[in-house]
Amino acid sequence: MPAKFVDSVHETYLAKVTDREERLKASPINHDLRHLPPMFVQYGTLERFYDQGKRIIAKAKEQGVTNWEVDLLENMPHDVVMLPTDVSPAAKGGIRQGCEFAAKLAAEVLNAEPEPEGEC
Question: Ranges for the Alpha/beta hydrolase fold-3 domain (predicted)?
Fold first, then answer.
């Protein structure tokens, strides 16, 4: 995403929230990450939010989160997976990684032992 666009989104995203404490609540970095569902976190090493991505991954590790998978796309910008896959091998690879993560979770659900039915 172009920096100018990101800046304009940043300015308008919480424009009506003036209280600093309330603004901080919008970011997951300021919350307990331990009870979230499995997460696939993917970002490019050239993207504007790279440092924030590293911080949230570090916080997840610090809190003992083990159900996240991180995929760093070397030398790629933000949202590279939005590019046409016939033009960007990185987009194709990033999409593949996300699909593999989703397939792994689906397989776990499908292969799980069924819960016993309750008695009537």
Answer: 4-81
